[in-house]
Design goal:
- Helices cover about 75% and strands about 5% of the residues.
- It has helices at about 20-50, 60-85, 95-125, 130-135, 140-165, 180-185, 195-225, 230-260, 270-290, 295-310, and strands at about 10, 90-95, 175.
- It is an all-alpha fold.
- α2 packs antiparallel against α3 (about 95-125) and α3 packs antiparallel against α5.
- A three-stranded mixed β-sheet has the order 2-1-3.
- The longest helix has about 35 residues, at about 95-125.
């Protein structure tokens, strides 16, 4: 590759096992199944929230946002993976690779910010219930989400523009399924110090500080729940935030396994962890969010029964 040449091609080989037709077939059906489950699950969540007036509240407005994010996230990576598994030519163009990279960075950041807004919503609802109606007005919720979207996609654009300044060395092959941060940096032969500086600074502001905020929020939430007089109130409030806690743990756990490692220690087991957060986590989120949520159960039931009734008539 040479700077300024937009016809560059990067080739990615699926985890060093794509040479086996049998492995390709198994992986193709595995990824296709997970993709379809993710799409159906997140679309149902979005439709249930959008069509049921009972769910037109700040809590479910925030809940619909990660469903949009997860839907776009898997669509950015999995279809190309499926094509590669069925094709002899596993190359992705330079522009296509940077496009994947842009949306991966933007959507992971957006997921992070959305989890923070949901934590704040739970904090106000449980710790400051008398102020919830005035604190979480619709205009503020929309403003918070708009801020999350704008900052996330500007951050993705910044890192993508920095990546265009990197010169990549041949052979341009990586045993991986999509263009993520460590893949591109491992192929770089020019100075990447500026990118690392930006990553460290923005990582503190966008990930470490917000995660600290969430930890503090849940310390106050748990303290408040434990101080409630009745067991039923404790159970209800705990159920409200249990699914969010599960998603936060899954999100940061997978992200930490991938990115809290020096680049030179990057190996196949970390690429597997990236597949987990890039494919498995978006698939699991709809189940986690709806598992203990009676309102969501009711909305999904009314949505599906309504569709079934329309088909019968």
């Amino acid at each position: 590759m040479h700077g300024g040449n937009q016809s560059w091609v990067l080739e990615f080989i699926l985890m060093k096992i794509s040479e086996s037709p049998e492995d390709q077939k198994i992986l193709f059906w595995m990824f296709l199944s997970m993709y379809l489950v993710t799409v159906v699950g997140n679309v149902l969540i979005i439709l249930a929230i959008g069509t049921d007036p009972r769910l037109h509240t700040p809590m479910y407005l925030f809940l619909a946002n990660p469903s949009f994010t997860d839907l776009f996230f898997v669509t950015n990576t999995v279809p190309k993976t499926l094509v590669n598994l069925q094709s002899q030519n596993k190359a992705i163009s330079y522009a296509g690779c940077l496009t994947q990279f842009y949306f991966l960075v933007s959507l992971v950041t957006l997921d992070n910010f959305t989890l923070i807004t949901m934590a704040y919503d739970h904090y106000v609802a449980i710790c400051r219930p008398l102020h919830y109606i005035t604190a979480m007005i619709p205009g503020l919720c929309i403003l918070l989400l708009s801020f999350c979207w704008v900052i996330s996609f500007l951050y993705g654009l910044t890192l993508t523009l920095l990546m265009t300044r990197v010169t990549f060395c041949g052979p341009w092959k990586s045993h991986y399924i999509f263009c993520e941060m460590y893949v591109l940096l491992s192929l770089a032969c020019s100075n990447t110090q500026l990118i690392y500086i930006v990553l460290i600074i923005t990582g503190c502001f966008f990930f470490f500080i917000p995660s600290g905020f969430m930890i503090m929020s849940y310390i106050w939430i748990i303290k408040t729940i434990l101080g409630l007089p009745s067991a039923s109130s404790k159970y209800k409030d705990f159920s409200t935030c249990a699914s969010h806690l599960a998603v936060v743990t899954l999100f940061y756990g997978m992200l930490g396994m991938v990115y809290l490692k020096p680049l030179h220690t990057y190996s196949m087991k970390y690429s597997v962890a990236t597949v987990m957060y890039a494919v498995v986590t978006p698939m699991m989120n709809p189940f986690i969010y709806s598992l203990r949520n009676k309102d969501m159960h009711g909305a999904l039931g009314r949505l599906l029964l309504g569709k079934a009734f329309q088909n019968l008539t």
